[in-house]
Design goal:
- By secondary structure, the protein is mostly helical.
- It contains four helices and two strands; from the N terminus they run αααββα.
- A two-stranded antiparallel sheet has the order 1-2.
- The longest helix is centred in the N-terminal third of the chain and has 15 residues.
- It starts with a helix and ends with a helix.
């Protein structure tokens, strides 16, 4: 309970004293050093930066946290949304796309937090970073969290 009071006070201080940096706009979806132009990144067309919602947090601070911490896009870009689950190969055979999985059973995009159970087997892979020990540790912590 005492921590919540401290968090509330910190938020008030940051907001009242104008100490927060300007959030990155949700439409700015280029990541990394290169920040390639849109004509070279068609998967980003129509995408928005992901959002993070922390309970008991002022909306302005949530917006800032999202802009600095969210490393994903929601919705996905137009190209990904228009990708088809099936395609026709060069022999004319209809195949399931190897990188575009079918949607989860009974998934409602309007209520993404609802638990979706499926009988389909799903996979989550982990590829260790070639960086130093801290990068490996953080990558491993992330994969354990997601699993």
């Amino acid at each position: 309970h005492e921590n919540m009071k401290s968090w509330s006070k910190l938020q008030q201080t940051l907001l009242q004293n104008n100490m927060l940096p300007t959030p990155i706009p949700r439409t700015h979806t280029s990541r990394g050093f290169s920040g390639l132009p849109p004509d070279q990144t068609p998967a980003l067309e129509g995408a928005l930066r992901g959002t993070i919602h922390c309970p008991n947090t002022d909306p302005q601070i949530n917006e800032l946290l999202s802009s600095m911490l969210a490393s994903w896009n929601e919705p996905r870009g137009t190209r990904d949304d228009l990708a088809q689950y099936y395609y026709t190969d060069k022999d004319g055979t209809r195949q399931q796309h190897p990188f575009v999985p079918l949607p989860l059973d009974h998934f409602d995009p309007q209520h993404p937090d609802d638990v979706v159970r499926t009988k389909r087997r799903r996979y989550l892979t982990f590829e260790p970073d070639t960086g130093g020990w801290n990068n490996l540790r953080i990558s491993f912590e992330n994969i354990l969290t997601l699993a």
